[in-house]
């Protein structure tokens, strides 16, 4: 599984804002429910006096609560702003993971020559392979592990792994009766995905695990494949 971590000045600023928000939240709650200390005097049987500080039980301090409530509102607002901005950055920071070009044969209908280029996290090619695929459409599949929103503060993108390449037919009858070519990529889904799927131990750190796919016609055009926080999508390449 690939788990991109998108770190940069925006994430650093948001992290500092989140720390400030948590500090204000703790301070405001302590101000509202803080205990107080009182100086008490004691005298023993010999007439000797002693003093000690005694901490009274915690109670809601309404008279001093106005400033605490203002700080509480400010802290919650900062945390909400941090999550909202980081979620936006995460949803708009998509990663290009592959490039596909498929061309159908005029003299052999429902067949295509497909070239798949795999890309690293920086968009650089890592491998290019050609496949003979049956069908009118090509389909590229992946598995996804989506993390909860609070982990977005750290710039953690959803985990993904490209797992399968195959073709499909426009005609439903051909789809059910014709030969299919399925190419496994990167060793398939792998043990990590299946161990994470439905595992109660990883539930606090995993929002969802699922499969996803994108398909396009074998029209000879080149498509760039992107992974977002929710899955794959294809865009016609500009170059």
Automatic annotation (TrEMBL):
The chain crosses the membrane at residues 12-33, 65-89. The keyword Transmembrane applies. Keywords: Membrane, Transmembrane, Transmembrane helix. It comes from the Bacteria. This is DUF4178 domain-containing protein.
């Amino acid at each position: 599984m690939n788990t991109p971590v998108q770190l940069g000045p925006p994430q650093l600023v948001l992290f500092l804002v989140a720390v400030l928000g948590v500090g204000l939240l703790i301070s405001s709650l302590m101000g509202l429910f803080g205990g107080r200390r009182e100086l008490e005097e004691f005298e023993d049987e010999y007439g000797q006096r002693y003093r000690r500080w005694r901490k009274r039980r915690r109670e809601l301090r309404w008279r001093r609560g106005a400033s605490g409530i203002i700080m509480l509102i400010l802290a919650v607002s900062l945390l909400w702003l941090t999550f909202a901005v980081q979620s936006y950055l995460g949803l708009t920071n998509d990663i290009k993971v592959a490039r596909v070009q498929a061309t159908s044969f005029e003299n052999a209908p429902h067949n295509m020559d497909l070239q798949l280029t795999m890309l690293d996290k920086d968009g650089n090619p890592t491998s290019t392979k050609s496949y003979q695929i049956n069908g009118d459409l090509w389909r590229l599949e992946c598995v996804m592990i989506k993390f909860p929103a609070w982990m977005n503060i750290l710039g953690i993108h959803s985990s993904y792994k490209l797992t399968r390449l195959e073709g499909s037919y426009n005609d439903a009858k051909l789809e059910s009766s014709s030969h299919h070519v399925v190419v496994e990529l990167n060793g398939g889904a792998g043990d990590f995905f299946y161990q994470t799927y439905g595992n109660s131990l990883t539930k606090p750190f995993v929002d969802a695990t699922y499969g996803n796919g994108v398909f396009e016609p074998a029209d000879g055009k080149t498509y760039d494949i992107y992974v977002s926080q929710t899955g794959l999508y294809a865009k016609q390449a500009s170059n």
